Amino acid sequence: MHADNIILDHEIFGNSINNNGLSNRISVLHVNSDEFSVYVNTSIYMKSSLFVLVLNGSANLVINFKDYEAKKEAMVLLSFGHIIRFRQVTEDFECIMLYVSKDYADEMFWTDMIYKRVKYGVKMHNSPILSMKEESARLLEKRLTFIDEVIRPSNHIYHNEMILSTLAVFFMDLGNIIEQESSATDSQNVPINELHFQKFLELLVEHYKKEHLVDFYANKLHITPHYLTQIVKQLCGQTVAEIIFQLLFSDAKVMLQNPGMSIQQIATDLNFSDQSAFGKFFKRKKGMSPKEFRKSV
């Protein structure tokens, strides 16, 4: 997975449609293979939740550095801490996607359905492809289509409440299907290193801009830095520092393309000790200084 390609989820899914100011918080997209090309070979860091129901064809993708195939009538369940890249999709590929931002989900009384995944637990986080029977897939398609209708601009005085209600029905149906059809419902058998890895990814989303050291994350997990380094290297093939630096570098490139931000401000926002330290970091990753990069874009 290349650092140059990493972007945040809302930069694609949250800005895809305009629906009365809700587009950065919740959206439903019906996408075919041609339209899906914008997502292919782009590495996306999830700070929210994304549910991709495959209606036809199949997709090859990488989630948290592991390869998967999502076929017709499968659901890809992505959430806080996932890093995803679609390698390719078949010509007949079609899907319907539901994007829900973290801040919108936090308003819901059933937030645990998204973030803690009560029924399917950590195992589904690390193996996030749900294969279903045809009738189950059609039910979820129906629910997602209805959500799409409800979130469209409306003067209904209970518009937000209606959206939350339709989402609640979708997640209750999804939870029921997972419990009945997935073998990933028993999180008790998940290895402890996978539990630590999931929690590390969730901590990373919250803190990577301010906390660059392995010790911080290890202390939060109540394990040693050496043990955390071993876990991360084993499960994704990269060190903790490499993942943190990927994310910082990705953010730095986006910020440098904003002429309203000074290089000093970017260095401060990404918690480098000073502009010089940020410049050395950026040049080591890109082969040019922040100023040179800014001029080249």
Poorly predicted tracts of residues? 109-122
> What value does the Rg take, in angstroms?
20 Å
Specify the overall morphology: globular
CATH-defined superfamily of the largest domain: Regulatory protein AraC
Our count of helices gives: 12
Largest sheet: 5 strands, mixed
- Helical residue percent band: 40-55%
Query: In CATH's first tier, which class of the largest domain applies?
Result: Mainly Beta
The end-to-end span amounts to 22 Å
Overall structural domain count:
2
Name the structural class: alpha+beta
Give the CATH architecture of the largest domain.
Sandwich
Q: How much strand content do the residues show?
A: 15-25%
Summed over residues and divided by their number, the pLDDT gives a mean of 83
Order of helices and strands: EEEEEEEEEHHHEHHHHHHHHH
The number of distinct β-strands equals: 10
Question: What's the structural blueprint in terms of helices and strands?
Answer:
Layout: E1 7-8, E2 26-32, E3 43-45, E4 49-56, E5 58-63, E6 66-71, E7 74-78, E8 83-89, E9 94-100, H1 102-105, H2 112-115, H3 121-126, E10 129-131, H4 134-150, H5 159-181, H6 192-207, H7 214-221, H8 225-236, H9 240-256, H10 263-269, H11 275-286, H12 290-296
Parallel strand pairs: 1-3
Antiparallel strand pairs: 2-9, 3-8, 4-7, 4-9, 5-6, 5-8, 7-10
Provide a concise account of the structure shown.
With 297 residues, this protein is an alpha+beta fold. It has helices at residues 102-105, 112-115, 121-126, 134-150, 159-181, 192-207, 214-221, 225-236, 240-256, 263-269, 275-286, 290-296, and strands at residues 7-8, 26-32, 43-45, 49-56, 58-63, 66-71, 74-78, 83-89, 94-100, 129-131. α4 (134-150) runs antiparallel to α5 (159-181), α6 (192-207) crosses α8 and α7 (214-221) packs across α8.
